[in-house]
Amino acid sequence: MKRSAQIHKSKGFTIIELLIATLVFSTVLLVVTIGIIQISRVYYKGINETDVQNTARSIMDTVTQGIQFSGADITETASPQPGNLQAFCIGNTQYSYRLGYQLVDSSPTGNQTITGLVSKNISACQSAAATAGGKEFLSPKMRLSNLSVKELVPGSLYKVTVRVAFGDDDLLNNPTSQNASCKTTTGSQFCSVSELTSTVYRRVGTD
């Protein structure tokens, strides 16, 4: 009887117990994996949103400060023409831009461009100037969806609108339009849109 009891006590896990343990471990591992993926998505989404918001804010600050303090002629933006190089001027600073097209470093294809929004000092304002040597405001994979400078009160009050989007065409609704927005699909963490609007009073007038 003693030997039988000892043999019984020395038995290992049964197959059912192993299966249950494996199932529990797999469930815990799956939950942890899903959690890590979600944290990663939130992290990248936050980075992209911050970058887009900072870019839109930088554009808005530069344009509005130019309007406030340039003391020189200001031209309004023309009607939106996605894909075409357009320009407007604040004093001797010209802003050349291409709406709706994603900025890339080189070799643009499809709805891509190597000019997002470039500022450059010039001697005479043109409708679509060369951008060589200017300052690019956007980062790769961003696009300028909307840029509008409109005179509300002649010579004194202006309305400025800036809309910047980040993401490939397949992640955006109407990617080349002024109202480009992110789709709620897989990969949406790599898409972000920021729009700012400001009314600017001109503090320094023309000579």
What does this structure look like?
The strands form four sheets. The protein has a four-stranded antiparallel β-sheet with strand order 1-2-5-6, covered by helices on one side. It has a three-stranded antiparallel β-sheet with strand order 7-8-11, with helices on one face. Strands 3-4 form a two-stranded parallel sheet. The termini are far apart. 30% of the residues lie in helices and 29% in strands. The mean pLDDT is 88. It has helices spanning 2-9, 15-69, and strands at residues 85-90, 93-98, 102-103, 112-113, 117-121, 135-136, 142-153, 157-166, 172-173, 181-182, 192-201. The longest helix has 55 residues, at 15-69. The protein is α+β, with helices and mostly antiparallel strands.
Outline the biggest β-sheet. Answer: 4 strands, antiparallel
Describe the global form. Answer: elongated
Q: Low-confidence parts, pLDDT < 50 over ≥5 residues?
A: none
Q: What is the structural class?
A: alpha+beta
Total beta strand runs: 11
Distance between the termini: 114 Å
Radius of gyration: 28 Å
Search tags:
single chain; 207 residues; alpha+beta; 4-stranded antiparallel sheet; 3-stranded antiparallel sheet; 2 helices; 29% strand; elongated
Layout of SSEs?
Elements: H1 2-9, H2 15-69, E1 85-90, E2 93-98, E3 102-103, E4 112-113, E5 117-121, E6 135-136, E7 142-153, E8 157-166, E9 172-173, E10 181-182, E11 192-201
Parallel strand pairs: 3-4
Antiparallel strand pairs: 1-2, 2-5, 5-6, 7-8, 8-11, 9-10
